[in-house]
Specification:
There is one protein chain. The chain is mainly beta. It is built from no helices and 11 strands. The strands form 2 sheets. Strands 2, 4, 5, 6, 9, 10 and 11 form a 7-stranded mixed β-sheet that branches. It has a 4-stranded antiparallel β-sheet with strand order 1-3-8-7, with no helix packed on it. A hairpin with a 6-residue loop joins β5 and β6. The radius of gyration is 13 Å and the shape is globular.
Length: 126
Amino acid sequence: QVQLVESGGGLVQAGGSLRLSCTASGRTASSYAMGWFRQAPGKEREFVAAITWGGRKTDYADSVEGRFTIDRDNAKNTVYLQMNSLKPEDTAVYYCAARGSFYGSSWYLASSVEYWGQGTQVTVSS
């Protein structure tokens, strides 16, 4: 079992930045590939970014490529999402995700995720 707890959400103006954190607990938490998803009101949960357990490979949704950066600190069992140049359309609840392998099923499939955090709200005002 892996437990995920997100933090760092909030209200920011368009063009601003936020950094989300997700701390994982569980005996093998650092061995999991980690990712971030988001869900806006009335929309399906969508993939944002993912990173291998070793942190050497990342993947991003086209909508955030070049603006968001995912990284991790396995010593702290924590994964981060640095969000820059935020837009109102980035407004959503952001969820931390974990699964056993970075490879295999597409990260665009929310059903491929094994563990979810409770979510943190990000609101970008125009």
